[in-house]
Amino acid sequence: MNKENLLIGMPAGSLADPNRGGNLVKLLENAGFTTSGYESGGPTRFSTVPYIYGWDGRPQEFGSQLGIHELDVAIAGDDWILERKLEMQLEYKSEVLLEKVLSLKRGKVRVVSIVHSPEETNLSDFLSKLADEKDLITMVSEMPYIALNWLRNNMDNMGMLQKFADFSVQNYKTPSKVKKGIVVYETWGKTEAKVKNGGADIGIEITQSGSAIRNYGLRILDTLMESETGIWINPDLKKNNNKTELLRMFLLNLYGCVNAENKVMILFNVRNDFIPDIEKYLRDNNLFADEPTMNAGKLFTEFGIQVDKNNAQLPLAKIRYELAVRKAVNIDTIPVDSSIPNMDVLGF
Fold first, then answer.
1. In the chain, where are the structural domains located?
2. What is the bridge-based pairing of β-strands 293-296 and 45-46?
3. Exposed, middle or buried, 191 (CB in 10 Å: 0-12/13-18/19+)?
4. Would you say the CATH fold of 263-346 matches that of 110-227?
5. Which of these, 307, 310, 259, lies nearest to 281 by C-alpha position?
6. What's the topology of domain 110-227?
7. At 117, is the pLDDT very low, low, confident or very high (cuts 50, 70, 90)?
8. What is the rounded end-to-end Cα distance, in angstroms, of the chain?
């Protein structure tokens, strides 16, 4: 493979399902990067842009792959990137510098700590009681290093880290490698069931609504982080001018599609003697940026404005009605697939 091609980590799982994950397949298509094979399990090909290649994988692994330059770019959640960075830091005493260069505004989740305790104690009181009663605290999580880092930080803030300085991350219910400290069991789902049935003192779970947690009779003790899907890179990529240009092209077109979501273009005609009233309405309601788009004719002028159709303060239906009241005619509403303000939106 040509070293100047851009190699992109394509996440398997829900994001690959065209009916789930915020429809990543459609987003890429609207951005001009039509894929084939991705939604059916790979291998992923970018059929319209030959110098971009897909590497199908698990988002859990992308942080490590970026760190060793096996990937140039990865589409992954903030949580899994952080998990791999913390693993390198806590387990291997190594720092991995990764950079999020674009939010895709989808895949939003919370990472929370859950406990099976009828007492409505706060985080500090719960951990203090646990530390007094036990020399070995057990946790279960699909993200063991995020779990470990959270507990160690809280113990440090409470002045109890020395007692729980030793730690071990291992498979569920394997013999503990430490006699005192923290054991985090890495699990593959059903964290709630393990906490409910006494398999661990604390669970760290990924949730959207928290409904499954409530169904198990558990309560959320703390929110560790909020996560979303984004575009991640190793900053060293910017040292390669050719790959940086490909990255900027990739990001700019994705930004345009994300920015266009829930937006429509309204095109309408106005007789020239009614233009002042229309311009005042557009200006008073901030319906254009620098100036409205206008194509002047002999008797009529065509206007074009971009509108957020989910804006409850200024509904699309009301805008069209107000335009018609002010003598606009031929009011057409057109979906917007991409909206790119300028190159500056990338920030580099």
1. 6-108+229-260, 110-227, 263-346
2. unpaired
3. buried
4. no
5. 307
6. D-Maltodextrin-Binding Protein; domain 2 (3.40.190)
7. confident
8. 27
Q: Are 80 and 62 in contact (CB under 8 A)?
A: yes
DSSP state of 247: H
Distance CA 31, CA 259 (A): 11
Distance CA 203, CA 225 (A): 14
* Domain range 6-108+229-260, CATH class: alpha beta
On whether the pTM is more than 0.85, the answer is yes
What is the tens place of the pLDDT at every residue in 41-79?
889 999 999 999 999 999 999 999 999 999 999 999 999
Paired sense of beta strands 293-296 and 52-57, if any? unpaired
Note whether 269 and 300 are within 8 A (CB).
Answer: yes
The answer to whether the CB of 7 falls within 8 A of the CB of 53 is: yes
Residues in the chain: 348
Sign of the four-CA dihedral 157, 226, 99, 167: positive
Domain 263-346 listed as CATH 3.30.70.120: yes
The yes-or-no verdict on residue 1 having pLDDT over 80 is no
Preceding amide of 292 cis, omega within 30: no
> Hey, what amino acid is at 129?
K
For 101, phi then psi, to 5°, come to: -110, -10
Average pLDDT over residues 186-200: 95
Mean of the per-residue pLDDT values of the chain? 94
Amino acid, res. 229:
T
